[in-house]
Design brief:
9-stranded mixed sheet; 3-stranded antiparallel sheet; 11 helices; 14 strands
């Protein structure tokens, strides 16, 4: 992890993290950025959870491009709120859908994607990611798709249609958590993807953090579950419990108590600094972090009721 963050997350980088909404948030990677004292980062994500708040509290962040920042379970996050109120942080507000569109445009290599979303709202006001455009096909004749018909149809009935163009986002690096990957970066993931797929295709570099690094034969045995191909990946890190306190489907559940405790223990700058000393700076790596959590707590978070997929036969 230390090597991956040192090499692929320089000061001033734009970093897409927390892409799978409330699961598989790469906390271990974020904590390593804090330990290394990264500065002037732009964080990109949909509904971030407390990882954004921790990195803001550590002074790593100068800009946020996101749909929401806070503690999903408890509400507002104090480091984020204080930094915005004090004018220390530039915030660009998107919606979850427009984050996805911006990353998809980046993945496609186009400057923007059109949409009707946010028309009539204030989200687009003075927002560099939105531009109002007219549909180039407004009022054009449509092609009839009725059975047996091959002639052009009549007026579509749409005149001077207003749309929003959503500007493309191309992160310098996307950091994603997955269940397993091989050493070449071919990764299996299941559960909620959020905007992960758009981000890994848009980003200039991708760091995959896997609960397990497995033999290539394991990944090849289920090619449809290989959602990240290795040729997109710059680094692979094996790191158990790397997403704690968020959940990883099939490996461990969400640590609700941890989110409550973070909210209670980070209300002031001094409180936040003390929390970071305990959970980030006093532990050298994730193994030490897990040891501090304690065996009983780790066991309590383990999967209690398994729900396996049906067996799949790729034979011929």
């Amino acid at each position: 992890m230390q090597e991956a963050i040192t090499r692929w997350v320089p000061d001033g980088a734009s970093v897409a993290v927390g892409l799978q909404l409330e699961q598989m948030i790469p906390f271990a990677a974020g904590h390593e950025m804090i330990r290394q004292g990264k500065r002037n980062l732009t964080l990109i994500g949909p509904i971030s959870d407390i990882l954004f708040d921790q990195m803001i509290g550590a002074g790593c962040v100068s800009r946020i491009i996101a749909a929401w920042v806070g503690n999903v379970m408890m509400g507002s996050a104090y480091n984020f709120r204080n930094s915005v109120e004090e004018g220390e942080l530039k915030v660009t507000n998107l919606t979850n859908f427009t984050v996805a569109l911006a990353l998809q445009a980046g993945a496609m290599g186009v400057p923007f994607l059109p949409t009707r979303t946010a028309l009539g709202s204030d989200v687009s006001k003075d927002n560099e990611f939105f531009a109002e455009i007219q549909s180039p096909f407004a009022g054009a004749l449509s092609i009839s798709t009725s059975p047996g018909s091959s002639k052009r149809g009549g007026d579509s009935g749409v005149h001077d249609e207003r749309l929003h163009a959503i500007r493309a986002l191309v992160p310098d690096v996307a950091i994603v958590n997955v269940q397993r990957a091989d050493a070449n970066g071919n990764a299996h993931c299941w559960g909620n993807f959020g905007v992960m797929l758009e981000a890994v295709r848009a980003a200039k570099h991708v760091v995959v953090v896997a609960e397990e690094v497995v033999a290539p034969e394991v990944i090849a045995s289920d090619p449809n579950r290989t959602v990240i191909p290795g040729f997109l990946v710059s680094a692979v890190v094996e790191c158990r419990y790397s997403a704690h306190p968020s959940p990883v489907q099939g490996y461990y559940k969400r640590d609700d108590a941890f989110f409550r405790q973070y909210h209670e223990q980070t209300k002031t700058k001094n409180d936040s600094d003390a929390w970071q000393r305990k959970w980030i700076h006093s532990v050298t790596d994730r193994a030490a972090y897990v040891s501090q959590l304690g065996a009983c707590r780790v066991a309590e978070l383990s999967v209690k009721q398994h729900a396996y997929a049906a067996q799949t036969d790729y034979g011929y």
